[in-house]
Design a protein that fits this description.
Mean pLDDT: 95
Structural class: mainly alpha
Low-confidence stretches: none
Protein name: Prepilin type IV endopeptidase peptidase domain-containing protein
Transmembrane segments: 6-25, 37-55, 61-83, 103-122, 142-163
Radius of gyration: 16 Å
Number of helices: 6
GO molecular function, one term: aspartic-type endopeptidase activity
GO cellular component, one term: membrane
Strand content: under 5%
Domain Prepilin type IV endopeptidase peptidase: 16-114
Oligomer: single chain
Largest sheet: none
Number of domains: 1
Shape: globular
Amino acid sequence: MLSISAAAATWFAPFVLPICLYVCFTDMREMRITNQANLALLLVYAVVGVFVLPLDAYLWRYAHFGVALVAGIALNAGGVMGAGDAKFIAAAAPFIHVGDLRFLMALGAAVTLAAFLAHRIAKMTPLRRLAPDWKSWSSGKRFPMGVALGGTLAIYLVLGILYGK
């Protein structure tokens, strides 16, 4: 059982899942996660979260945003991740219940591995012809992490609906 409430995940999912799909798409196509997507994600939390979470939990999760943003800026400065990835992680952080952090790390690792393998396989097969102009196909060793990040948040919320408190 996950710590996120099934009710909160149910309310967040219809708004968050399209943003996650958009992030996956734009990162594959352009190798960037747009600021608009990150702001939309944060706006969903600000508007929906106040109605579906207890006020203390709602406010406390803004600290998750701050911690994730500072860590992401540091990792971006060190060349470990892109700025869009860091901002997406920060915008997604308030949706995560702190009790699910260990599970989320394992889920993120599994989704990242699956996304990386799927991307590399698609890159070397005729599937590439479906979208021949996507920058992620010719980005060398770089990988569009938005696919893994968006996928992780989307799967977490769906699992929260199914297995949340």
